[in-house]
Amino acid sequence: MSLKNLRTHYTTQINPEQIGDDKVALAGWVHEVRDLGGICFVVLRDRQGRAQVTLVKKKIDRELFNFARKLIRESVISVRGSIKPEGKAPNGYELIPDEIELLNEAESPLPLDTTGKVDAELDTRLDSRFIDLRRSRTNAIFRIRHEVLHAVRNYLANGGFLETSSPKVVATATEGGTALFPITYFDREAFLNQSPQLFKQILMSGGMDRVFEIGPIFRAEEHDTRRHLNEATSIDIEASFVDHFDVMEILENMVEYVYNQVIENVPDALEVMGIELKVPKTPFLKLTYQEAMDIVNSHGEEELKWGDDLSTLSEHTIGEHVFQETGEEHYFIIDWPTEIKPFYAMPYEEKPEFSKSFDMMHRTMELSSGAQRIHVPEMLKNRIADQGLDPEGFDFYLRAFSYGMPPHSGWGLGCERFVMTMLGVENIRDVVLFPRDRRRLSP
Ligand code: ATP
Ligand code: MN
Prior knowledge:
Shape: elongated
Bound molecules: adenosine-5'-triphosphate, manganese (II) ion
């Protein structure tokens, strides 16, 4: 028998008014068994939702009734039968079974409660992710994450961006500062790439004009915060013949589009999470680095000098200030000092101590960094040396600038931070299936 016969529909795909006498088969997990003596309800759960299987003792085969009563929670079953409209049941119907097949019996007790009634620590949930994913809130997060990535791909592909992939095993650091994970590559040392930056720029020299990549980035930073991972997913774009303002516009419009798509396509997942999503208003407010510093300094909790990077506290102060003033959570900080941005950020011609760079911020954290890039080889070489890096290690990259490199700009947006801020999730690990942090390497 083909396994396809085990399931004809998801629980949410059945229209009780239209299905008539057709037999259906649902397959999933035993969410709950309620045995009331004369009647027994088995709640079956699949990825999309739940269905009530109803067995009335007097009307049903005795053996089937007894079998259903004894089902163990979280076992996998397939139920074949007919549909009866029932307003009080999930999705407006109940399934009257002819047949219940037990496909895999769960042990008990379970490592984790799946009903959401008993809360578990994040660590416990991550250790048993397979079962945590059966909880409706966790299930909702990953259905929304899927929708976010799907919408990003749609938006960028429709905007003329080609989807590309760059190597994750590399010979040199993308930029100084961020620590790298060394690995053994045959008899040589190599590293896990911290960003697709250098490769997506090379593609501009290759005439690919507009590219995007959604892929992993690795950062060997030892921080233990709610917004840092050692392996994260970066949404990156690079585009030729446009400046930093043009790619900021692409970014804010993409954010708006993605929020709208999530509202439209996964309202049930938002409802499970109890979220009423508000679409960010475009264009986002643009503060200069100087204005952002002034906000922090006028609040008096911290004293920032020109050339300082923003601390976590200052990000919060500015985010809160912007929210109070505008009611919006997203904004840009533009025109950063050249010296605190990566070497590839283009300085302004008339004031080279400032760069054509930006961060896109959420009220609570940085979501994205971008800039117009330096496309002039001599200037780029000097900037690499200025930052104490060895230009020789960048030879494979620099060569692409000497034979026709167009002016170009781009950004990188952290997928997990994008999702966590959208959903108001406290810890970034909650929006990664199998997070990698300083302590966690398994599962
Ligand atoms: P931060 O200063 O907040 O650590 P960053 O400036 O080092 O971030 P970038 O190199 O600018 O990060 O990377 C672009 C985006 O990628 C960030 O804005 C963020 O959304 C995401 N990102 C970078 N590093 C991490 C990380 N360790 N964990 C999760 N997301 C990250
Ligand atoms: Mn950044």
